[in-house]
Amino acid sequence: ASARSATCTYSSAIRADDNARARARIPGLIAMPLHLRAICADITTLALDAIVNAANSSLLGGGGVDGAIHRAAGPELLRECRLLDGCRVGDAKLTRGHRLPARHVIHSVGPVWQDGRHGEPELLASCYRRCIEVAAAAGLSSIAFPGISTGAYGYPVELAAPIAVTSVRTAAPLHPGLTDVVFCCYSEQHLAIYQRLLDGCDTDSDAR
Ligand code: AR6
């Protein structure tokens, strides 16, 4: 793992109305800060509540990060995935982490890049939003994302990364229990793109 990383801290009270909705759901809630970070690492090494898998619709394994996660988690992960009846593009499903240091895996299926005019941006945004929703519904507080669709599925990273960051910035503040979101890059080139995006983020004070 690289020592290089970018960090950005938000209040989870990004907008007054979002915060009011969150507080209405959880009486007595004290809003926790939300940390967004980009790091360069092998996602299978991260000991968080959940890591996200860039899977395919079968949820029965594949190459890339999917292959790495299944190898590190052991055969029990495939056994659990067989019970899930697959997953639609843009959706996400939760399993345990088995032999991974992460407690859970959230399997999400990104779109295959065609030309950007076949719903790819909306489907990719949906992946990030659904992962956040699934994590929050399970009461998880920390989650790491790989660059969904940016490998075998061919989504250009310079187009995918802003969607990833914007989606998370929109969805995560609605779930105050979620406090740490990591964008786990697998190259310095991808990390630099995320760093630029996170460096351009609002600070606590002007995000309110
Ligand atoms: N840790 C973090 N990121 C990784 C790792 C890792 N260990 N390995 C690869 N990446 P891909 P996709 C990055 O191809 O494009 C599979 O066969 C990689 O550099 O894993 O969504 C599935 O079964 C890239 O930036 O996923 C599907 O069939 C990103 O993870 C298909 O590939 C995603 O690359 C999904 O394609």
Main traits of this protein?
single chain; 208 residues; alpha/beta; seven-stranded mixed beta sheet; 7 helices; 7 strands; 37% helix; disordered C terminus; binds ligand AR6
How would you sum up this structure, described in words?
This protein is of the alpha/beta class. The protein is 37% helix and 20% strand. The protein has 7 helices and 7 strands; from the N terminus they run βαββααββαβαβαα. It has helices at 16-25, 64-73, 75-82, 120-137, 157-171, 188-199, 204-207, and strands at 5-11, 33-40, 50-55, 92-96, 104-109, 142-145, 180-185. It has a 7-stranded mixed β-sheet with strand order 1-2-7-6-3-5-4, with helices on both faces. α5 (157-171) links the parallel β6 (142-145) and β7. 45% of the residues are buried. Residues 12-17 and 202-208 have low confidence and may be disordered. It binds ligand AR6.
Largest sheet: 7 strands, mixed
Strand order of the largest sheet: 1-2-7-6-3-5-4
Q: What is the H/E string?
A: EHEEHHEEHEHEHH
List of distinct ligands in this structure = ligand AR6
- Overall pLDDT, averaged? 89
Level of helix content?
25-40%
Specify Rg, calculated over alpha carbons.
Answer: 16 Å
Question: What structural class do the secondary elements suggest?
Answer: alpha/beta
Strand coverage percent: 15-25%
Shape field: globular
The separation of the N and C termini measures 33 Å
Continuous helix count: 7
Q: List how many beta strands DSSP finds.
A: 7
Task: Identify low-pLDDT runs.
Answer: 12-17, 202-208
